[in-house]
Design goal:
CATH class of the largest domain: Alpha Beta
Structural class: alpha/beta
CATH topology of the largest domain: Rossmann fold
Strand order of the largest sheet: 3-2-1-4-5
Strand content: 5-15%
CATH architecture of the largest domain: 3-Layer(aba) Sandwich
Number of helices: 7
Number of domains: 3
Oligomer: single chain
CATH superfamily of the largest domain: NAD(P)-binding Rossmann-like Domain
Amino acid sequence: MEAGQSEGLTPNGFPVVLKLTGKPVVVIGGGAVGMRKALAALAAGAVVRVIDPRSPLAFPPQVTHITEQYHPEHLEGAVLVFACATPEVNAQVVLDAQARDVWVNAATSAEGGDFTLPAVVRRGELTLAVSTGGASPALARRIREKLEAEYDQTFAEWVQLLAEVRLEVLATVPDESRRRELLDSFADWEWLARLRTEGVAKVMEAMRVEIRRNLS
């Protein structure tokens, strides 16, 4: 048994949220799949370049499109690589990226790369991710669709409200335990219900009343 591996457990994926702002990301293959990966990386703030000699798709001007056949030097400087070309090219990209200790995702072989991508629901700063470890992307997609229906745009407003009120609590409530209890109470579902019926302004004022009450 390997160190750190408990008996009866198999290694599983380790979920993380990567900060890619300003980081170079390379996408090999400029088809529909490559376009989705490039746009997702761009939305995360990455500096994106796509390698494809004959991509028919028009990438945003922020994406550098290199119209060349893939060769290993295209990976230089990358912190993340998406292999979205043919299975043969993708297999080579995986080998080249791993030789450079660069994380790589292979669109044609979930088990071949270093990471898989979850199905994601975003509501403002709230991110919900569903992964089956590549076993069933269809199931992950169906769960995502269910979450999309259950977690509407009000959650984005709630998260933004909690972020603002947290700053006020930290700045005005001196007692640490009282701060913790107060912030925990603001995350109760009843506040979401009030937000749906009363709106942001009234809920914010109600939260501020609770803050002032904890100052006395």
